[in-house]
Amino acid sequence: MNPIDLVLVEDDPMVMEVNEGFIKRIGGFRICGKAKTGKRALEIIQELRPRLVILDIYLPDFNGIQILREVRRQGIPTDIILITAAQDVATVQAGLRFGVVDYIIKPFKFERINTALNNYRTYSEQFRNRGEMNQEDLDRLIKILPSQENPSNRIREELPKGLREITLQQVYNFLKESRVGLSAEGVAEGVGLARVTARRYLEYLEKNERVILETQYGSVGRPINKYKIVL
């Protein structure tokens, strides 16, 4: 199978180098273009029309959402993954409304972008050699996208004071990617939260039946509580 052409947009040279290393490590993708500014990013996207763009939001000239909007306005058939430090709900919603296939919040680990690109590859392969799709095909395809597993799509009640929707999503996604039960300490370290804060989000997800709590007993010491995604 031919590699998927990808354009990488990031203004920080060190972050660009790290992301490039991650992508090469994953395999199956070919970086056909790189840009450090929004203007150059648009030029490359218009010229190459890559299958996928990994786009930072904070660029020296344009906001990444502006680039995303312009790509959609021009009807360029390119999928976009946003990678950014922006966590405010308005920015997240803007990205989702303009059809990003994933939204990764900095700082992130290799496992997160690995999951995003593998999901995208699976998603993209579903369209190969197909003339049409039935409902079952579409349902299976939609479930591949991470946004479908966003806990905010399923938990409708107002969050308790002190909890943030975007952090709830980070905690949920981290658990989902781990595929095994994790302690509050493990989640706190992986997401970058205080242990007590991580526990509050985990308890909220458990209350809403999005995670289950498993207590593991060892031969010595106190039992360990681990949280696991409800499948």
TrEMBL record:
GO terms for molecular function: DNA binding; DNA-binding transcription factor activity; phosphorelay response regulator activity. It comes from the Bacteria. SMART domains: REC. InterPro entries: 2C-system_Tx_regulators, CheY-like_superfamily, DpiA-like_HTH, Sig_transdc_resp-reg_cit/mal, Sig_transdc_resp-reg_receiver. Signal peptide: none annotated. The modification 4-aspartylphosphate is found at D56. This is Transcriptional regulatory protein. It comes from Desulfosporosinus lacus DSM 15449.
